[in-house]
Amino acid sequence: MQNTLRILIELQEIEKKVRALAEQKARAPIQIAMMQEEESKAAGKLAEKEEMLKSAQRLRKELEREVEDLEGRKSKSKQRLLEVKTNKEYQATLKEIDDIEDLIRKREDQIIEEMEVAESLAGEIREHERLLSEAHKRLEQEGAQLEKEAAKADTLIASLEEEKERLKPQIPAEMWQKYQLLSANRGGVALAPVNHSTCQVCHMNLPPQLFIDLQRNEKMIYCPNCQRIIYWVGHEAYKQSSPASGEPE
Ligand SMILES: [Zn+2]
């Protein structure tokens, strides 16, 4: 009985490790996909800011060309000022020059605005370049690490399964069936340690007589509340095989 129970405890630990490894392995591609998404988001943001900078620069060039045009028109108007015949024409030309100068000032203000926009965008671009490079580095390093761990998990799972196959024949068939049924119906936890007369899985206090029987360790005993196979952690036979011996690497 002791031996069967000890092996069952061991089996449960093995199955727990296998589940943890399988979960870790299943998480890896999700984590990698998340990092890829972060990288492509960062690249998208950077491209967006670069596009905004380009358009600010284009607008500035257009404004500068317009100012050049306006300067040309102003010179022509000034030239005409020397050739006008009537006062009315003179006043009209002066007004024209005034209007052109107004427009030039407006355009020059806009040019300054676009320069400021470009400057702030250049700062944002540097920041987004940094973020993109970080996201890229993270994907490369952590992604490689995750892939390595997933590959290692396969090897570990295989060796744990081998160990399980080796232990299984040592358990009486009837007990093995009970164990599997319990495990399937109780979230993979068929056995529960008992400490200070309390089931460590469902936290129920055992009736005193049952706890005494458990300490005697002469037959299989089940938790009256959660129906799991219970064992007393204080018993020499189970001290070594009790769980919490650490998660797989
Ligand atoms: Zn219980």
Please mark out the parts with pLDDT under 50 across 5 or more consecutive residues, or reply none.
244-249
**Distance N terminus to C terminus?**
31 Å
CATH architecture of the largest domain: Orthogonal Bundle
Helix and strand element order: HHHEEHEEH
Overall geometry: rod-shaped
Instruction: Give the strand line-up of the largest sheet.
Output: 2-1-4-3
Number of helices: 5
The value of Rg in angstroms is 40 Å
The small molecules bound here are: zinc ion
In short:
The chain has 249 residues and is mainly alpha-helical.
List keywords for this structure.
249 residues, Helix Hairpins, 2 domains, four-stranded mixed sheet, binds zinc ion
Question: Would you spell out the secondary-structure blueprint of this structure?
Answer:
Layout lengths: L1 H80 L5 H81 L5 H13 L5 E5 L2 E2 L8 H9 L4 E2 L6 E4 L3 H4 L10
Helix pairs in contact: 1-2
Describe what you observe in this structure.
The longest helix has 81 residues, at 87-167. With 249 residues, the protein is mainly alpha-helical. Strands 2-1-4-3 form a four-stranded mixed beta sheet. Helix 1 (2-81) packs antiparallel against helix 2 (87-167). It has helices at residues 2-81, 87-167, 173-185, 208-216, 236-239, and strands at residues 191-195, 198-199, 221-222, 229-232. It has two domains: 17-168, Orthogonal Bundle (Helix Hairpins); 172-239, no CATH class. The site of zinc ion has 9 residues, from loops.
